[in-house]
């Protein structure tokens, strides 16, 4: 447990960070918006579990079961389709089952979208925001921008796009990870979390871009001899802080991805999640844009020099 004065200092640091974020976007003419926390649709991602609750009011109000958002992504995209332009939201999001040293089931997320931008341009703005936050506490960081494939080749001597699974598993032998149910992308993720990420220097911003197409999530896929997902992840030290995409705006393709997510859920014995039909109805009208989500607590942990998320919360889950 932190000393009470340290906790107060962390709350003050959060307040200063929020002021910095709002000024950062005000100067860039990006509109702050608020969207619903409760939705009739949920997040189909098989690796994320949502909280749900039941509405007890009049049946004409809509679906009784409501899902707490895991991010504001879907309503923000509906606003983009309606013509709101560049926008951001800073607010609370919820993920069931995620509690531990670096995770809290309730946390704060900053998410923003830039119309007419690709993921590469948004990477630069995300770096600028992180650098401004570091400057606020008197710190600087070097920047490394590298493609997903090149990072694996440089650090592990493995081509992540073409290496057989046995080659991906070999560097992880010391961890005695059972192979049951693990596919190619699972082994690639394990290589990042177990071998690459822990070695990232504390005072470095590491940005990895252009992921395997199988890890596209809600990003566009760039065609080619080896198709790639136009997405990036930003790390500050060993902490993953932000995840961005050149956003998909093809409703038919997005519906297929949602349905594939639910198929994976069925195969794992998990409940299927209602698809966001309101998003799909307008997604084709969403302008070409890039978006990024940033974990506020992760950034605060880096700024405050702690590896424990509890240190940057007023009250962590266990005492909430």
What structural keywords apply?
320 residues; single chain; three-stranded antiparallel beta sheet; BirA Bifunctional Protein, domain 2; alpha+beta; nine-stranded mixed beta sheet; globular
Q: What this model shows, in words?
A:
The protein is α+β, with helices and mostly antiparallel strands and 320 residues long. The chain has a domain at 4-139 and 251-319: Bira Bifunctional Protein, Domain 2 (BirA Bifunctional Protein, domain 2, 2-Layer Sandwich). Helices cover 34% and strands 22% of the residues. It has 9 helices and 12 strands. It has helices at residues 4-27, 73-81, 119-136, 148-156, 165-169, 184-196, 251-267, 277-282, 296-304, and strands at residues 31-32, 38-39, 52-54, 65-68, 87-94, 106-115, 142-147, 204-212, 221-222, 228-236, 239-246, 289-295. Strands 1, 5, 6, 7, 8, 9, 10, 11 and 12 form a 9-stranded mixed beta sheet that branches. Strands 2-4-3 form a 3-stranded antiparallel beta sheet, with no helix packed on it. A hairpin with a 2-residue loop joins β10 (228-236) and β11. α1 crosses α3 (119-136). It is globular and about 60 Å long. It starts with a helix and ends in a 16-residue tail after the last helix.
Quick structural overview:
This protein has 320 residues and is an alpha+beta fold. 34% of the residues lie in helices and 22% in strands.
